[in-house]
Structures are given as structure tokens and as C-alpha cells.
Amino acid sequence: AVLSGLFLTAIGVPFAADILEAMSTPEDVLPLATKYMQIYFLGMTLNLVYTFCASMVRAAGDTQTPLLILSAAGVLNVILNIVFVKGCGMNVDGVAWATIIAQGLSAVAIVYVMTRRTDMVRLHLKKLRVYKEPLMKMLRIGIPAGIQNAIFAVANLFIQRSVNYFDTVMVNGNSAASNADTLIYNMMSAFYTACSTFMGQNFGAGRHDRVMKSYFVSLTYSFAAG
User: Fold this and answer.
1) Could you give the CA distance from residue 81 to residue 75 in angstroms, rounded to a whole number?
2) What is the pTM of this model?
3) N or C end: fewer C-beta atoms under 10 angstroms in the chain?
4) What is the mean pLDDT of the chain?
């Protein structure tokens, strides 16, 4: 997670403006959008550390702890947005820093929890290194899940690029309206995020029949939510 985050930061920070220009971002919002993306990419490692660690804790059967940490981080993010933007007069940089701080605290919290666990997912910081065989097993499940998420992300990039051809008012209106779309998307994605956990657990237990069962059940729920 750390290595992947640093890699994305090394790409995202210097090339943020180029990425936005390739998406036909309007000139009048380009400076602010670039600033937001650069700050956001600085926190990519924290984001991945939380996501990776939370996935392991959930795989061990503890779904409550990651949910509580994420909920607390979400509330903190909202509070910091108000403090930075309203209180300190910051712009998009305040929103970005609020996100990074919330992500940082969630990453620290989940790592602390893992160092205190007594089961198979206890984290020993002194033993951190790349273990080839477990890594290959994780990638066999992780890469298809990542491609699934990437399909949505790439599709949204094309949509956003088309929206960016309009003026700033249209872009701002679309961004506001997309919040509703995000809520629906998160409802649907919650099912296949849970599905990935169930599939990982049953794959490890050799219960391939339950892998397919959890897949079809989650697919049904996701379609119903949509």
C-alpha cells in the first residue's frame, strides 16, 4: 500500500495539470482544480494504507472496527471543511487538506488497531517487507477487483471530459448534481465491496461453491439498489 501510494503521488503531483488539460477542464477553473488534485495525490499513500488494512481486518471477520473508523473520519472531514473554508477563508485547498487529514487519522487508527490484534492479521511493523508468495495470491483476487473499479472510473472520466466542454456554470452544476449519483453508486458498491470480502474468505477456505453463491446474491442486491 505504501509503495503503491508513493508511486501514484510521484505521478499525480507533477502531472495533475496535464491530466486535467487532457480532460478539457475549463481554463478558469484549471488552477484551482490542479491545486486540489496535487494536494489530494499527496495523501494517496494514507488512503491506500487505510483501504488495505481495513480490507484485511474485514477479511478476518471484524467489519465493525473499519466502519467506526471510517465514520469518524467522515464526520471529521465535514467539520474540517467548515473550519478551513468558512473559518479560515481557504478555497479548494482547504477541502483537499481536510480530506488528507481525515484519511491520515483513519490510516493511523487502523494501523494501531492491527498492531494490537492477537489473530492472523496482527501487524508486526518490524517484519514489514514484500513477501512474494502471499503477494501473488492477493493480486490474483485484487487485480480483477481493481479492474472492476477502474471500469467505472474510466467511464466517468469520459463523461467528465464531455461535461468540461461546457462553460463553468455547467461544470459546477454537474459537480453538485453528481453528489446524488455518488450516493446511489456507494449504495451499489457497498454490496460488491462486501462481495469481495466474502469471496476472499471462501476462496481461502476452499469453498468455491460459496464464492459463486455470494457473487450472485450480491449482484442481485446491487441491481435492486440501482
Assistant:
1) 10
2) 0.70
3) C
4) 88
